[in-house]
Design brief:
This protein is mainly α. The chain contains 15 helices and 8 strands. Strand 7 and strand 8 form a beta hairpin.
Length: 579
Amino acid sequence: MNNRQNKLEGFQHHEQHSKVSMLPRIPEVLQSNAQTHSPQTGLPSNSAYQPPAGMSQQATHQAHSPRVAHPVGQHKHQLTQLQGHSSAVSGQVQDNNQHRVSMSPQTPQGPDPVHDLPIELLQAGWRRFWSGRERRPYFFNKLTSESLWDLPQLGEQGDQLSDPLGITTPSPTSISSPPMSSPNDVRLSRLSVDIPSPVAGDKRRGSQETVASPAKRAVINYSPFWNFDIPTNVVIFERPLCCMAPPHPDVEILRAQVTTKLRQHYQELCHSREGIDAPSESLNRWFLERKVIDKGSDPMLPSNCMPEISQSMYREIMNDIPMKLIRPKYSGDARKQLSKYAESAKKMIESRSVIAESRKIVKWNAEDMHSWLRKEHNATYDDYMERLAYVKRQCQPHLIETAKSSVEGICSKIYSQSVEYAKKIHDKHWQILSEHGVQEPQPSSERSRRKVLCYPVQLAAPCPKLPTPTHRVENQTTVLSYKGETMKINSAHFQKLEQLYGWNCKDDGKFENFLARTWCLLRRYQTYFGIQSNEGFGLQGALPVPVFECLHRVFDVTLSALPLLSTVTLSNIVQHFQT
């Protein structure tokens, strides 16, 4: 019985020893398994083993201790080492994390930088953004699309509903001082596109908010595209006062009416006498050519020119005789144009009284051309153009000699009618002014030789109170209406005219005649350009703002007024808006 019990005890011990030796090496598992063994015997605490009868607890422990003490003690030692190593590793990781956190930058958890502005600026549409190119913040207004480098100040913009022109808007003291010049160029008061250092308060687009003279800066507060604060360096002889009458809306309506009649009469003369349409924009070029030598009283219509026949108008009409030639696109069009030219030349030479030799040459070339066209059905485009140039060289001198007297009559008739219309406008103009007590001044014969800086034209006659046109704004367009005639202009250019008016106008400090004079300026432009669609667009051009800045910085150019504005057709209006 004791032998069987000892064998059973030995088998259980061997089985327990195998279980202990096969424990995994993970510290948590070793620790949990170690806690399941008795601290004295190393056997499971819930084991059903009972010591044999007559054997004490101490003897039992001594009997089994050599077999189980070694593996359990070994694993306890390994567990201790693993726990120590785990503590060291965890401490090192914690130190590394602390070191990594201490080395990372401290990013403040502040408010949204886009909306980090006063509530008044946020309500006005301002937001704050970061410029990656300039490496500095800037401020953008999402309502007006305006950008500033510095924090915007409220109170600079007037009420756009009750005061759209800004006439009664008070100006802050910061605008009263002239804008600062760039330290890189003492002559340039605005920044160019290639000057990197911006001045405080400048636009991000490189264009300053410059205004007019100190007296007018309180009412003029927009110049996003132009800078008129650069003083002139042009020296001229002092001029006498101009004797032209000041502009009046009723007179501009009359001038537009008679100019339209002059254009229609020009078209009728060309069609009835030469069988052609009036050359495109020929009368506009005639206005410019005549005003260079004109000494009359009207600023637009020629009335005192010598010689009376314009060579510009004469050449343009002659160039369209016997028909207007255009460059065709296809060979079929070239064939038709060649046939029409030969037929028109033959018809013209037969209907006019010319010498027999000219008639013979023109008719022979025309018949020869028709004969060639009947034979050649597969001619190329170049063949038709060469034949057209040949027949024109042969016939044109005889045709010009035939139509010379008729074309000169057209030029003379147009000039005579212009003189008549100019006198009619002059009488009407001074009749209106005399009703307000303004008399026509006499021209001065004195000529001063004193040199002064360039200044706008000054009128000798005072200007009465003018009737005010109606004013409204439609999207980005400003509309001025007077007696049923509506003039439209881009709102940005309308603001430019207002700024120029504040710079140069000396007789209207309260802007009482601003709208009337602006309407007269637009009406004069429309009268000059013509009545046809797309007419007059090629008569004026302008350069971008950076080009003018370069001209000023490199060549010291300060006078940028167009000849059309300053001396030709707007001389009695542009004095209020002259650049």
